[in-house]
Amino acid sequence: MMSGAQFEMCNVDSTRDDLIEFYFDSSIASGGYGWIFTKGNGVANVGLGITGSDKKSAYESLLHFVKNCPATQNAQAVELNIGGDPVGGLVERIYDDNLMLCGDAAGQVNPIEGGGIILGMMGGMAAGKTAACAIKEGNFSKKRLKQYEVDFNKSMWGVVPKLPAVRDFVLSLSDEDFAKIVNAFKDEDLVNMDVKGFIKVFVTKLPRLSFKVIKLFKMFLPSF
Ligand SMILES: Cc1cc2nc3c(=O)[nH]c(=O)nc-3n(C[C@H](O)[C@H](O)[C@H](O)COP(=O)(O)OP(=O)(O)OC[C@H]3O[C@@H](n4cnc5c(N)ncnc54)[C@H](O)[C@@H]3O)c2cc1C
């Protein structure tokens, strides 16, 4: 479970309105990351998610973040959102007799970055379609409702159950590893880079991490 805390703030002095900012630094967000999602006119969502064993709560970490972040020195919080974010992956079964689980309740959250809105909506859409058929047929058995899981997995190309492996890789990286990755890619032509080009950067500039990265790519692209 990730603990998340977010302020909506005004008078945020963000670098650019067309960019979102991520902060990968364990002194800001232990086992997670901080973010500034700009909304224009100095308004932004400023938040963080933590999974680490830090004694500070997510709220305390957020207060520390906004106190020290250059972009929020003159900003005022106008709204606060706090909550658990289930990043443990999909629950074992998302349907049963007379029951379908969607969204956070089903673990439909991207375990790498904690985003659950898109996956939750995809889940809701697939569940809605199965529910409509089940109502027409008057059949709410788990055998009938299994269609929901089949459709959800198909709509997400079957990648959701594989994402926790990427999360574990990301969590295994130190602050220094993150800095090295950013430095390795900062002068590369990312827009035109294909998978082979991506792997080449790891093999040539980050050999210690390349083995794990190749293993992950093989999991998602068996033909790789
Ligand atoms: C601080 C924070 C920031 C986040 N930022 C992002 C982000 O930027 N992008 C992203 O994709 N995801 C983000 N997430 C995750 C995302 O918010 C959730 O994954 C998503 O909202 C889950 O949707 P849901 O419908 O399953 O649950 P919820 O959005 O939690 O909706 C559940 C609803 O059920 C209601 N409810 C609860 N109990 C009952 C009851 N007994 N009877 C009736 N109603 C009840 C609740 O009031 C609530 O309205 C964030 C999470 C946190 C904590």
Describe what is shown at a glance:
The chain is of the alpha+beta class. The protein has helices spanning 58-68, 117-137, 142-155, 163-171, 175-185, 195-205, 207-220; strands at residues 2-10, 20-23, 33-40, 43-50, 76-85, 95-96, 99-100.
Keywords summarizing the entry:
single chain; alpha+beta; D-Amino Acid Oxidase, Chain A, domain 2; 3 domains; globular; binds flavin-adenine dinucleotide
Describe it for me?
This protein is an alpha+beta fold. It has three domains: 2-85, D-Amino Acid Oxidase, subunit A, domain 2 (D-Amino Acid Oxidase, Chain A, domain 2, 2-Layer Sandwich), CATH 3.30.9; 95-160, no CATH class; 173-220, no CATH class. It has seven helices and seven strands, in the order ββββαβββαααααα. The strands form two sheets. Strands 2-3-4-1-5 form a five-stranded antiparallel sheet, covered by helices on one side. A hairpin with a 2-residue loop joins strand 6 (95-96) and strand 7 (99-100). Helix 2 packs antiparallel against helix 3 (142-155) and helix 6 runs antiparallel to helix 7. The radius of gyration is 20 Å and the shape is globular. The two termini are 32 Å apart. The protein binds flavin-adenine dinucleotide. Flavin-adenine dinucleotide is lined by residues 4-6, 47, 81, 83, 85, 103-105, 109, 114-118, 120.
